Amino acid sequence: MKKHHFVLITLALWLTLVYGAMILMQQINLEIFFVLVLAGFLVILHVMEMKFVQRGYQQYLLYLQIVVIIIFGIIAVHKIMEII
Questions:
Q1: Could you tell me the pTM of the whole model?
Q2: pLDDT above 70 covers what percent of the chain?
Q3: Domain-by-domain residue ranges, the chain?
């Protein structure tokens, strides 16, 4: 099995686990789903060592991480503003 297949399978399992847990709790919230998915995606990116990534894609992964962190922050700020 190639390394990129492992990453895709891990991400698919994480998505299934999060969605399954939300169904079991009978609490389906799209914002919470995205926060958990984005957090899992960041963990997978950090666990995947950069030596396994081709040099041309390393810069794109950095940009992708920045975008994911910005989206994560926007959702967090939105939730905080709802509470206030």
A1: 0.65
A2: 89
A3: 3-83
